[in-house]
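Lab notebook, bench 4. Still working through the backlog of constructs that have no structural model yet. Next entry is a single chain of 192 residues. Request: give me the C-alpha cells for it.
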Amino acid sequence: MAGHGASKVSAEGVLATFPELRDIEDASLRDIVIEIWQEVLDESDWERLEDVPKHPHKLPASSNLVDHTRTVTQMAVAVAEAAERVRGIGYDRDQLIANANLHDVSKLLEFEPTPEGGQGSRFGHLIQHGAYGAHKMWQKNLPMEMVHSVLAHTLTSRYVPQTWEAVVVHYVDYLDSDALNLQHGVPLNIRK
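Model written out:
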C-alpha cells in the first residue's frame, strides 16, 4: 500500500486510463471520481489499474477491469442518449458517466494480485460487491442517488435500481459481462 506520499497513479494517469471522465462537465465531480480511483488503488495491493482483472474466477487476465469500465461507461451514455432521443427520457450525463465509471472500483480490493493475474481477496469474500465504492462516494458527499447506483448495479445487492441512471448502469454492466462470458465460453448471467 502506498504511504502518505504520492499516489500510485496521478490524476492525469487516471484520465488517460479512463478518457470518458473528460466528458464530465462538472470539474469538481470529475476530480472526486479521479480521487476515488487514486485512493482505492493506493489502498490495494495493485500497482497499476491496467493489471486489475475483470473477474479472475471466470475470465482470463486479459479481460481487465479498465476495459470493462470503459465499455460500461460508453454503453451507458449510448443507451441514455438513444432513450432521450427516441423516448424523451432525460438523464444526468455527468452522474451517469461517474456512476458507470465507479461501479466496479471496489474490485481493486475485492481481488488481489497473483502471478497468474489475480484472485479473490479476503475483503472480496467478506464485503458485498459495490459496497466499498458506494462508501467512498458517500465519504466524498456525492448525491445519495449516485451512491445508490453503485450499490444497486449488482445482483448481489438486495437493492433494485430506483433511478434511470442506476437502471442503465445495471443493464449495461451485465450486457458487457455477458459479452465477455460468451466470448470466453463461460456461463451467462442471464437467468430465465
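Notes after review: The two ends are 43 Å apart (CA to CA). The chain has one domain: 11-184. Flag for follow-up if needed.
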